[in-house]
Amino acid sequence: MLPSVSVGSFYIALVTALVLGLVNTLIRPLLVLITLPITILTLGLFTLVINGFLFWFVASFVEGFRVAGFWSAFWGAIVYSLISSVASWLLVPRPRKG
């Protein structure tokens, strides 16, 4: 979807998704906690910067996953979040009301 973000193969995409999931589970909460004052000041929008930074961070050590720069990582993280949200909405069953 973004020409400045590329993945070498399907296998690398799976590895990248796994590493990104681990980083989001382990490191992201700590970064959000550390940057809580600026996150509150920006009404939560600084979380997008954190997501972009972590996306860029994962690209720095996963071979075959390339991101051209921070802004590419920022937009890549937004696209990744949107796709994850839609997939979760479609695949995760929700309790019925009534």
What's the short story on this structure?
The protein is mainly α. It contains 5 helices and 2 strands; from the N terminus they run E-H-H-H-H-E-H. The protein has helices at 10-26, 28-34, 36-41, 46-61, 70-91; strands at residues 5-7, 65-67.
Chart the SSEs and their pairings.
Elements: E1 5-7, H1 10-26, H2 28-34, H3 36-41, H4 46-61, E2 65-67, H5 70-91
Antiparallel strand pairs: 1-2
Helix pairs in contact: 1-4, 4-5
DSSP helical segment count: 5
Proportion of beta-strand residues = 5-15%
Distance between the termini: 40 Å
Tell me the number of strands: 2
Element order, helices and strands?
A: EHHHHEH
Helix/strand-derived category reads mainly alpha
Low-confidence stretches: none
The mean pLDDT is: 88
**Cα shape:** globular
User: In which order are the strands of the major sheet placed?
Assistant: 1-2
How would you describe this protein?
The protein is mainly alpha-helical and 98 residues long. The protein has one domain. Helices cover 69% and strands 6% of the residues. It has helices at 10-26, 28-34, 36-41, 46-61, 70-91, and strands spanning 5-7, 65-67. A two-stranded antiparallel ribbon has the order 1-2. α1 (10-26) packs across α4 (46-61) and α4 packs across α5. The model has no long low-confidence stretch (mean pLDDT 88).
